[in-house]
Design goal:
This protein has about 200 residues and is an alpha+beta fold. The protein has helices spanning about 5-35, 115-120; strands at about 40-45, 50-55, 55-60, 70, 95, 100, 110-115, 125-130, 135-140, 150-155, 165-175, 185-195.
Length: about 200
């Protein structure tokens, strides 16, 4: 019995390797296609610390199929549109969203890195400041206040001597109507950061 030539052995090895690579790529493509879609996350950074901010609330733009809703009973969800929504039957894995904490010392900026899904959307950010007497002041910034498609935002923690940043809520708003036909905006997705 004679040995097969070296070229035949190399050709058979290469063919087997090619079959393995094609099968691996096919399985990988199916896994990626069937992977659950993840909600966009924001990265927040201040004074040497970076955190990942998962959504506080996340529903479709039609306010259906909510996958993340705020924790019930906390002060953070009082008056929130999300506090009145149930998790959808089609989303049994609905999760609890929470406000994340990132210490931002007065005078240091809060920097936020946005994924493209948020940066390209018509977003608004509600900045909450406190006065020395404990009263709060809200300021709203939007995508229109930054260059188109900006992926990085810088928020001043002390824009005026008496103001101190205590929180930021990034929102993706939709236009809605109440029973009387009055139009208003409400968020279908929100990310919440406490900066104290």
């Amino acid at each position: 019995m004679s040995k097969p030539p070296t070229r035949t052995i190399i050709a058979l090895g290469a063919a087997a390797g090619l079959v393995f690579v094609v099968a691996f790529v096919g399985v990988l493509a199916v896994l990626i296609r069937n992977a659950p879609e993840r909600e966009p996350e924001i990265t927040a950074y201040a004074h040497g610390t970076a955190i990942t901010v998962r959504p506080y609330g996340y529903c479709t733009p039609l306010m259906q199929d909510c996958r993340i809703l705020p924790e019930r009973g906390g002060n953070a969800d009082v008056g929130s549109i999300f506090s009145r929504l149930p998790c959808g039957e089609s989303t049994p894995d609905c999760q609890i969203g929470k406000t994340v904490r990132l210490e931002v010392p007065a005078g240091y900026p809060l920097q936020m890195s946005l994924p493209k899904q948020i940066a390209d959307a018509p977003w608004i950010a509600r900045l909450v400041y406190t006065l020395p007497n404990g009263d709060t002041v809200d300021r709203i910034v939007s995508r229109n206040d930054y260059p188109k498609g900006a992926l990085n935002l810088t928020i001043d923690s002390k824009p005026e001597p008496e103001l101190r940043l205590i929180g930021v809520e990034m929102q993706l708003p939709i236009l809605a109507k109440d029973e009387t036909g009055q139009e208003f905006y409400l968020p279908h997705a929100a990310w919440s950061i406490s900066t104290l």
